[in-house]
Amino acid sequence: MYAKKLYIGLLFVSLLVISCTNPLDGFVLGFKEPLDKATVRVQFSLPNGGKLPSDLNFQVVGKDADKIVTNLNTKNFKISKEGVLILAVSPEFVPSSSNPIKITLVAEAKDYTKIIKDVTFTNTNNYSFYFGFTQRNVAGNANANQLVLDITKSKKLEVQSFNNTEKIQLTVPDNVGFLTANNENVKGVIDVTLNHFNSKNSKAYLPAGGVATNPVDKNNKPLAEPFDFYQTAGGVSIEMSTQNHEIIKKFSVPLKVNLDVNNTILNPITNKIIAEKDKLTLFSYDTDTGIWKEEAELAIEKDSQTGKLGVTFEMPHLTYWIIGWKRNICRVGPSFTIKSDLKDLDIAYYAQLVDASNNQLIRDYYISLNNGAVASINFIPRVAENVKFRIFDYNNYYGGNNKVFIVESAALPICGTNNLSLDLSKLSAPKFIELDIKVVCPQGKVLDEAGLPAQMRVQYSEPDKNVWRDVGVLTRFNRKVRTYRMQLGKKYDMRGSTDGGVTWPYVQRNYLVDKQLWSFELPGKEYCK
Amino acid sequence: MMYFKPILYAIVVSLSLLLSSIPLKASVKNDTISSYIPRSFSVNLSSRGYGAEVGFKLKEKPSFGLRIGLNYLAFQKAQNIKMDKGTSVDIFPDIKTLVLSGFADYYPFKKKIFRLTGGLSYEIIQQYQVAFSSASGLNLGGLQIASDDFGNINFGMKWNALRPYLGFGFGRSIMKNRLGFGFDMGFAYMGSPKLKLIYEGFLETTTIDDEMKKIEANMKGYSYYPYIGFQVRYNTYPITKLK
Fold first, then answer.
1. Interface predicted TM-score of the whole assembly (ipTM), two decimals
2. Cβ within 8 Å, pair A32-B205
3. Which of A333-347, B6-20, B75-89 holds the top average pLDDT?
4. Of A18, A350, A370, B221, which residue is most buried, by most CB within 10 angstroms?
């Protein structure tokens, strides 16, 4: 009887045991290979005490939005705590000029102006954007506003900026069409984002540093010479989009703009305080193409009622509009070829361009000192006849001596193609640090390269400072990188990212670099076979 | 809160069964009681948690018995697993099941102690979930993963709610005394489990989704829920002198 019971019991237990295999059989947790073609990397500013706005609403919209994934091929469009998001065209689709992928990126938060950007992929090239949050209605040298324009009801937009000292007014003509880049007419309520730069300080807010390298005239013909600005008298950048996030680029009939000019600024041509009928130039800057355009010559007008000065112009399309006075600059200046014993430096050295007659600083640079590197001085204003170039033993990673130069060139004309060699063979090479990925396998096992991350970007920071700088990118098959950016004998924090730099989950803190090889140890036998 | 209704419903059903079956007599000499009147009540402790059963005996077929039962199991105590250098992983299990079962017992031997049992159960509440996080972050041999980067991981499993049962047990069908004991052992067939993993954090950078498919395939055979139960039975009609 007992044998029978035992038999039945064993039968049950056996049934359970034979039906089960170890759930983790064959389990190997590897790293995803981030998508690296047709990507768009977005870096958001962190305006809220080093954090993103708490109510930030980020969207990918447009007809091809469903073809967009993160670079880890997921639909989790989460911005990292450092404000980074990398999107990519899904690998199922290959963008081309005949099959472009068109999306619009939108970021909205209550206290900040709307950020909206069209992105079109016509090939597998990558894009990178910086999206800075601009706080609404905060007094300063620039004044940002977001307004709503219902074109069926309203014909005028007016913004009083800078403690009501300067205003900007937009007048919408009757029957105007609001057009997208593809000339599609859009209707409805429109979000208007307006950045108004005041007369005195607008030069500090010029796009592309205010240097027009390939400017065109109002008929889109190239100008003979590049230019920058003596002085600006004000400016505005305007963006419009529907509440369905269609971006408006132009109008069927130009909008009329009235822009006040502060009556205390200096006219650099007359060298007197600005006055009625003074001439200045209207420029536009296209953020999509990077081209400056000389749009028109304007005359300062005086309001008969208020006595305020200002200009009036027509705005056929939306972009940056700047009023001011240009100055022509040299397209090509001198160049300096470096002769040194260095070949793989990944740091840059401080250099100065000075007026040869009085040693006054004209502009400073950080340049490569690898043998054969060329420092070209282009797009420089004609502020001197001849210039000299000085190089200092001071780099952009851990400093040095920026008071006494180690090499100075002979004097060369500021404009024109001239080249000199600069001998830096006396400069001793700094010590490099080599960084590698180290995996210690249990006895009898060897490294399984396929299990390693396809790439690991590595950054370092001074301990606990949380200010991270790139070291390099280690790959599955090239697990060593050489850098001159860190110094022997110092402590650093180091971190690694396997997803192209969105998240940095792997950190080594307060590591003393006491030898030239620093191993980034990956734990886990899953990298062995 | 979402589980309150089915629990309440199960309690009401059990109480109704109990109240409708209060014995009119203390004992009988001949087994003439209707098959629809419960013959026993029992409380049990089993691999399905704790619960209660009502037993019936078929008048026409004395070798057969029927039981209807309800079992409940919950485990939600947070666990903290210590790791290297003062770091730890927090585990938040959320396991909750409420099972309604019907058993048919067959007593093949004269003494009517050993029984073979077949049945069907329905899992009214089925929640097998566990969440992982790390408030301290992790330190794996000098490599650190911050708490935010560790993120949150939620793992869940689900089987068929309707499950056939096969087993055997011990316990008299016709009890001589008011109080008796019973034992059951067997398994319920649940089908293959479906796994679900929701996460944010460092797992996003890994191939965990592919690996989950492997785990699910490996667990295809995890289809039998072992059942071991002990009962304390109260007999409503003890037959003291049955001849």
1. 0.73
2. yes
3. A333-347
4. A350
